[in-house]
Amino acid sequence: MIAVLETHDAVRLHFLKTVLEEADLHPFVFGATPYPGALPSLLMVPEGEVDMARRLIDEVEKSAPPDPE
Fold first, then answer.
1. Given a cut of 80, is residue 9 above it in pLDDT?
2. Pseudo-torsion of CA 58, 6, 10, 68, nearest 10°?
3. The model's pTM
4. pLDDT at position 34, please?
5. pLDDT at position 18
6. How far apart, in Å, do the first and last CA atoms of the chain sit?
7. 48, 50, 6, 23: CA torsion to nearest 10
């Protein structure tokens, strides 16, 4: 398993996990705690799925509207 994302954002993490699952990849969340955001979690995939997972994450995040600040 190789990490394709490290984040404190539990919503982003689980959204991207769902995106990867819908693409028939096999993501795994490592480091989830009962206190979301306290420690970073890793989104991991099998070695053979790394390139596809990174491409999907890039596509999804580029197409998302910017955060209103």
1. yes
2. -50
3. 0.84
4. 72
5. 97
6. 35
7. -100
Q: What is the pLDDT of residue 44?
A: 97
Cβ density class 4-16: b for 16+ within 10 Å, e for less = bbeeeebebbbeb
SS3 16: helix
Orientation angle between helical segments 10-22 and 50-63, nearest 10 degrees: 120
Q: Could you report the per-residue pLDDT of 13-50, keeping only the tens digit for each?
A: 999 999 999 999 999 999 877 776 678 899 999 999 99
The tally of CA atoms less than 13 A away on the side-chain side of residue 29 is 20
Phi then psi dihedrals of residue 10, to 5 deg: -65, -35
Write the CB contacts of 54 (distance below 8 Å, at least 6 apart in sequence).
4
10 and 36 in contact (C-beta within 8 Å)?
Answer: yes
CB distance 4 to 52 below 8 Å = no
